[in-house]
């Protein structure tokens, strides 16, 4: 990060806050072309990705922190006397559960493929 200039660092912050490159460029006080050129710089891109990951980690932590309350609210809705609400919540819950299992299965398959690829790259003894 030491090689990025102050304008590039400002551009990273603006890209994290703004919805478009045009908005980010206006906030920084440079052209869209300059921002696009920055995005071609591997060091700039690396730092941008690092900061994006930090923001996403913070968001994930907040989502996880609210999960217990969300589950409690859904459970309360399952106990409602309104059959339409109960039905929609139950269907949504089952759908999410299925998606969770699908993602878990895909991750396991991906890990197995990566392990096979890594085994192929190891030198023979």
Number of strands: 0
The total tally of domains equals 2
Secondary-structure element pattern, one letter each: HHHHH
Distance between the termini: 40 Å
**Low-confidence spans:** none
Largest sheet, in brief, is:
none
Average of per-residue pLDDT values: 91
Strand content: under 5%
Label the structural class. mainly alpha
Estimated helix fraction: over 70%
Query: Count the helices. How many?
Result: 5
Summarize the structure.
The protein has 125 residues and is mainly alpha-helical.
Outline the structure in words:
- The structure is a single chain.
- It contains five helices and no strands.
- With 125 residues, the protein is mostly helical.
- The chain has two domains: 1-65; 80-125.
List the helices and strands and how they pair.
Layout: H1 6-17, H2 21-28, H3 32-38, H4 42-78, H5 83-121
Helix pairs in contact: 1-2, 1-4, 2-3
Which structural traits does this protein have?
82% helix, flat, 0% strand, 125 residues, mainly alpha, 2 domains
């Amino acid at each position: 990060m030491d090689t990025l200039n102050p304008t590039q660092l400002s551009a990273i912050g603006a890209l994290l806050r703004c919805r478009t490159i045009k908005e980010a460029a206006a906030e920084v006080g440079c052209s869209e072309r300059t921002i696009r050129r920055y995005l071609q710089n591997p060091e700039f891109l690396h730092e941008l990705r690092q900061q994006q990951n930090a923001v996403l980690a913070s968001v994930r932590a907040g989502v996880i922190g609210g999960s217990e309350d969300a589950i409690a609210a859904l459970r309360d809705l399952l106990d409602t006397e309104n059959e339409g609400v109960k039905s929609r919540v139950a269907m949504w819950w089952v759908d999410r559960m299925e998606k969770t299992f699908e993602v878990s299965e895909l991750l396991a398959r991906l890990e197995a493929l990566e392990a096979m690829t890594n085994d192929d790259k190891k030198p023979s003894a």
